[in-house]
Amino acid sequence: MSITQLSPVFTLLAVFAFAAPAHAAEPDELLNSKCSGCHARTDDGLQRIKDSRRTPEGWDMTLVRMAQIHGVKYAEGERAALIKHLSDTRGLAPSETAAWRYALERTPGVVESPEDATLAEMCARCHTYARHALQRRTQEDWLKLSHFHLGQYPTTEYQALGRDRNWWEIASTEVPELLADHYPLDTEAWNEWSAREHPDLSGTWRIAGHAEGEGPYHGTVEISAEGEDRYATVATLNFPEGRTVVSEGNAIVYTGYEWRGTADADGKTIRQVFAVGEDGNTLSGRWFDADNDIDGGTLTAVREGPAILAVIPEYIRAGETAEIAVHGVGLDGEVSLGAGVDIVETVSADGNIVVVRAMAAGDAGAGRRDVSVGDASASAALAVFQSVDSVRVEPANTIARVGGNDGPLAKVPAQFDAVAYANGADGDAGTDDDVRIGYFDATWSVEPATEIAAALDDVEYAGEMNTATGLFMPAAAGLNPERPYSTNNAGDLVVKATVDDNGSEVSGTARLVVTVQRWIDPPIR
Ligand code: HEC
Ligand code: HEC
């Protein structure tokens, strides 16, 4: 099977993963009837299937593989019903996914932090490290995964970083041991988690978060139960500059906490990948445009207070007076914004949003302050600063992809944010004690990253930076006769954000590689 043959099925994946299962048969019966033809029944389950645990996306990838490579067919709703059943009975506990959620949330520009150097070299050069870190298997089953790689993709051991070592020997001895050690099938965390009841998430929730490239937003969502682990949502969200979005959607909760939702907002289909907190009272994660997952934002939500979700704006300059809104649930009582910040007056207070006029003393030291309203508190929720001493661009390293031009894949843009920092006590920028002030508006530009990029005029050809929003839109795919060797519109760029800090300019940079299309884009990259 060639790589191009694989791609059409993967493009359907997201649709299936988020669709509501329509199947009525008992899930165990369905699993047996679909799978036991090849996976023999044993006393503790079907062979292979009983030997691993996965996320909903991980199970979906396996189900797709069973269809593509082994010819399994799913009637309407069956694949979704199997994902639900397998995720509920053979999922991962919240603590087992916590470090790797970026892969599920499709967070742009993440540079991974592998736990194990050998596994990083052996297993994270074709796909993410998170792909295996989000599975749990017996050692024997991890070994079978190595066998699958070589069996299905015989070139595996001859590809980059496979040729300088005896790849197969390591993959069949040391690697399964390491994997079973780091990511074992049987864990206390899963025993404990899988015995719990799934919480009912119905109710009114308050939301706050950061819309990437846009700024802080807040709002409310009504969540109502529509059957077991199924919900309908109606949200009203307030974005910067008065943009209000009302969105309606629905969601399935897998494994008692893996919220996967779809909502219509402003004509866009939005996907939600959230984790329900262990007490069933918080949601956190990321949402994104289904057609363009770099367009999204982070979210935290809480149902019962007293609790603080966000402080907007999240910073105040020493010597200035500003209106500060504290967002949360059950906010009642005296407001404190920390040392050196006085409350001049309360402008409004309704339990969910408390707006105060605050004054930061001229000599207030730079740092993040704990904020409280009555019994609700949030640590380091407000930054006080004297001046912007440095700017960091987020993400610091990322990729955009050419596309469009009548080809099958759309362009993949890149969105940047400028984050202002104050120097910490050491007076130096770029050190651990820097104080994160928060997101600032910036003027954006791109420069060639290398001499070659300059010689090939990548800035001209690779795409267009929106100077006001930090959105980089790559150029069209395909050969470009205007370029040397008619090469494509790839580029190697430095992205520069310039923040105006009361008349003085402070800049930060990031690296942007503009490259070719991603032809295969599975749910876990
Ligand atoms: C027509 C035969 C066939 C059917 C039916 C089948 N499988 Fe498989 N399955 C295989 C083979 C062969 C392998 C080993 C090679 C591989 O991993 O692709 C496998 C491997 C697996 C694995 C291990 C994959 C891994 O990541 O290492 C899982 C889990 C699995 N199957 C689940 C299922 C489920 C769930 C079903 C039912 C929906 C199913 N299979 C139906 C043939 C089948
Ligand atoms: C040479 C490239 C390459 C290397 C090296 C590689 N993989 Fe893969 N891996 C693939 C491909 C290709 C697939 C199947 C297509 C896909 O899912 O994108 C895959 C699939 C997987 C899956 C999903 C299987 C499923 O259906 O559940 C896991 C988990 C995985 N690899 C883990 C590993 C581990 C662990 C290692 C190290 C031993 C490794 N990979 C090394 C290319 C590679």
Q: What would you call the shape?
A: globular
What's the total number of strands? 30
What is the number of helices?
14
Query: What ranges have pLDDT less than 50 throughout 5 or more consecutive residues?
Result: 1-17
Bound heterogens, unique: heme C
Sum this structure up briefly.
The protein has 14 helices and 30 strands.
What key attributes describe this structure?
525 residues, alpha+beta, Lipocalin, Immunoglobulin-like, eight-stranded antiparallel β-barrel, 30 strands, binds heme C
Question: What would you note in describing this structure?
Answer:
This protein is an alpha+beta fold. It folds into four domains: 3-188, no CATH class; 203-302, Lipocalin, CATH 2.40.128.120; 307-385, Immunoglobulin-like, CATH 2.60.40; 390-515, Immunoglobulin-like (Sandwich). The protein is 22% helix and 38% strand. It contains 14 helices and 30 strands. Helix 2 packs across helix 4 (78-89), helix 3 crosses helix 4 and helix 9 (139-152) crosses helix 11 (174-182). The longest helix is centred in the N-terminal third of the chain and has 16 residues, at 3-18. Mean pLDDT is 94; it is low at 1-17. Bound molecules: heme C (HEC) (2 copies).
Secondary structure topology:
Elements: H1 3-18, H2 27-35, E1 41-42, E2 45-46, E3 52-54, H3 56-70, H4 78-89, H5 94-97, H6 101-105, H7 117-123, H8 130-133, E4 135-137, H9 139-152, H10 167-172, H11 174-182, H12 188-194, E5 203-211, E6 215-225, E7 230-238, E8 244-254, E9 258-265, E10 268-276, E11 282-289, E12 292-302, E13 307-312, E14 315-317, E15 321-329, E16 335-336, E17 341-349, E18 353-360, E19 367-373, E20 376-385, E21 390-394, E22 397-401, E23 414-415, E24 417-422, E25 435-440, E26 443-448, H13 451-455, H14 458-461, E27 463-465, E28 471-474, E29 491-501, E30 504-515
Parallel strand pairs: 14-20, 22-30
Antiparallel strand pairs: 1-2, 3-4, 5-6, 5-12, 6-7, 7-8, 8-9, 9-10, 10-11, 11-12, 13-15, 15-18, 16-19, 17-18, 19-20, 21-24, 23-28, 24-25, 26-29, 27-28, 29-30
Helix pairs in contact: 1-3, 2-4, 3-4, 9-11
